[in-house]
């Protein structure tokens, strides 16, 4: 195992990030050379260590929650931050599930042979050192570490100040388990400083960090995209729509809408705008059900007419990720009107149609240009675990490299291997 560089004082963020990233690059070479089974076994040990550390993680999380309440964090942010024994067990289970996923590294993407006898293969390889910048969700510490290690990447983690104690406790447990399995400790590092300048140092660490993944609010993602000198795998905010088509089953529509908005309001897959077809016969009861379930509804004129408790929506509401029990509702005139609204206001994250009309569903699935498009299902399924990916490092809404839930395959690139028998080029 390589010896880590002596870390400079956190007062010098550039020197700190440079040292950590340099150690990560050395560790990544060792990690990538480990057999797939050894990486998987180390992750199982990490999951066991995290479970064993549940009391320490809960104690650390309690400190973060107390600080968050004192600092006025919203209910949705506190929900993102909060851990209990069940959630910790779920985080550990996700680490173990990642360990059991097929390893993409070394997979042959395609191969061919030229007339001159040269044999070409494209194979998946790790990206290298991945920097993950995230905010209040401590589970990201474990998810990102597990996915990076399984795919042979080193992870350099920079969590938000809201979860600083939780992140440190989770990281310590994971590294303990990974080290027992032979993974260099420097393969998963948590930046030991909350200085915001460390984020800037990561974004400009070209040649040391190979890719940046931001997970957080719109301001964080905007800063990363504006300042990065390192390739970025980014997502925008989750302005997720559910369109209740005229042919939707009323009971299904109500169940999906309530779940999509209120199951967990603080996740990026939560519905933020509900579009109701003007020909849907149970529009009023649908809106009433949401309000009765504790949701504040902001609507256009026709939505306000459905229930006197609907308050007027502002122009900004259609472009707002509430992450709270607040919902924008618009009444639309048919599928074309719904598609136009989504095209104007969607953040290309997750959009849903509820309908029994197969032709309308297929048109929606084909024409909505979002990373995830669903038919007759809650947008809360926008999650890598629910996609069978074990966990996710984020939901990418861009168009390059990876899109939707980014898991193991999204954390690899490829290289060409060419095998000859003495050919020279004429």
Structure write-up:
With 426 residues, the protein is of the alpha/beta class. 40% of the residues lie in helices and 19% in strands. It contains 14 helices and 16 strands. The strands form four sheets. The chain has a seven-stranded parallel sheet with strand order 10-9-11-8-7-12-13. The radius of gyration is 23 Å and the shape is globular. The chain starts with 12 loop residues before the first helix and ends in a 7-residue tail after the last strand. The mean pLDDT is 93.
Task: List descriptors.
single chain; alpha/beta; seven-stranded parallel sheet; four-stranded parallel sheet; 14 helices
**Strand-and-helix sequence, N→C?**
HHHHHEEEHEHEHEHEHEHEHEEHEHEEEE
From the alpha carbons, calculate the radius of gyration and give it in angstroms.
Answer: 23 Å
N-C termini distance: 46 Å
Strand order of the largest sheet: 10-9-11-8-7-12-13
Rounded mean pLDDT score = 93
Identify the overall geometry: globular
Write down how many β-strands occur, each being a DSSP E stretch of 2 or more residues: 16
Give the helix level as a range of percent.
40-55%
- Given helix and strand content, the structural type is alpha/beta
Number of helices: 14
What is the quaternary state of this protein? single chain
């Amino acid at each position: 195992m390589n010896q880590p560089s002596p870390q400079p004082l956190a007062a010098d963020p550039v020197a700190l990030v440079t040292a950590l990233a340099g150690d990560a690059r050395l560790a990544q070479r060792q990690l990538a050379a480990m057999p797939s089974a050894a990486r998987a076994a180390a992750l199982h040990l990490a999951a066991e260590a995290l479970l064993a550390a549940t009391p320490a993680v809960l104690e650390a999380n309690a400190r973060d929650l107390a600080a968050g309440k004192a600092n006025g964090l919203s209910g949705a942010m506190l929900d993102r931050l909060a851990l209990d024994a069940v959630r910790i067990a779920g985080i550990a289970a996700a680490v173990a599930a990642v360990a059991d996923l097929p390893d993409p590294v070394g997979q042959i993407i395609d191969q061919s042979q030229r007339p001159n006898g040269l044999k070409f293969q494209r194979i998946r390889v790790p990206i290298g050192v991945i920097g993950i910048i995230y905010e209040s969700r401590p589970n990201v510490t474990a998810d990102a570490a597990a996915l990076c290690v399984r795919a042979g990447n080193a992870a350099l983690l920079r969590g938000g100040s809201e979860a600083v104690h939780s992140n440190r406790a989770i990281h310590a447990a994971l590294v303990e388990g990974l080290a027992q399995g032979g993974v260099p400790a420097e393969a998963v590092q948590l930046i030991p400083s909350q200085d915001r300048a460390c984020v800037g140092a990561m974004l400009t660490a070209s040649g040391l960090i190979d890719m940046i993944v931001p997970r957080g609010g719109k301001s964080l993602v905007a800063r990363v995209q504006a300042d990065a000198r390192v390739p970025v795998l980014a997502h925008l905010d989750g302005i997720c729509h559910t369109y209740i088509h005229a042919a939707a089953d009323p009971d299904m529509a109500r169940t999906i809408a309530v779940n999509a908005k209120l199951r967990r309001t603080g996740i990026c897959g939560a519905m933020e705008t509900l579009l109701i077809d003007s020909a849907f016969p149970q529009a009023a009861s649908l809106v009433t059900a949401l309000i009765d379930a504790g949701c504040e509804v902001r609507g256009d004129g026709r939505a306000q007419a459905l229930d006197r408790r609907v308050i007027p929506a502002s122009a900004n509401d259609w472009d707002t990720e509430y992450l709270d029990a607040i919902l924008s509702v618009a009444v639309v005139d048919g599928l074309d009107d719904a598609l136009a609204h989504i095209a104007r206001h969607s953040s290309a994250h997750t959009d849903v149609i509820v309908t029994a009309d197969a032709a309308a569903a297929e048109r929606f699935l084909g024409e909505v240009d979002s990373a995830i498009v669903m038919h007759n299902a809650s947008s809360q399924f926008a999650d890598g675990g629910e996609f069978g990916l074990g966990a996710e490092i984020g939901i990418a809404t861009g168009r390059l490299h990876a899109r939707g839930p980014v898991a193991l395959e999204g954390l690899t690139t490829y290289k060409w291997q060419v095998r000859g028998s003495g050919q020279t080029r004429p």
